[in-house]
Amino acid sequence: MDKLSELKQHLRRGAVYRRSELEQWSKSVDRHISELIADGTFEKVGPSLYYYPKKNIFGKEPPENGMLIRKYLKDGKFLITSFNQYNGLGLGTTQLYNSMIVYNHSKSGEVKLGNKVFEFRKKAAFPPETSKEFLVVDLVNNLPELAEDQPEVLKRVYQNIPQLDNKTLSTTLKKYGTAKTRKLLAQALY
Q: What are the DSSP calls for 104-170, one per residue?
């Protein structure tokens, strides 16, 4: 059996691999990666990231966002969100945005992974998953970036605060709100 075939035996469909991971199975990793891309086994999905696609009746499945980001960051501590999630809060936001935001502890900037653009934002703290209260705080944190009528959105946030869990919102505001957001929401919260 040749070395490339030996390497293929270690690969799993649907997995994303870092170049460094493949070194354990190959002494000529760059040549083997080139061959795997050329024969359609691998797709390059980011800097030193390669995907071995799963196939279904429609063709190749794209890699899962969480898996891509985990491999890119070399860490599982992140939160994927989008300004689009604000539209579900009932606050009058209606715009659709193309990029997804990834709160994490180590990287900042836009990166294309697979066929999607992720905006990495380095944050000291973020929850493990979104909640209605977090999304309200996050919306006010990001209000200047939204393509919405910002005073109208803020007015609706104030009007909807009574429908949120006051204790959870207060805790979320302290943990994740910017100084400006804390000031803006504190007057409506207390």
A: ESS--EEEEETTEEEEEEE-S---SS--HHHHHHHHHHTGGG-SS-HHHHHHHHHHHGGGS-HHHHH
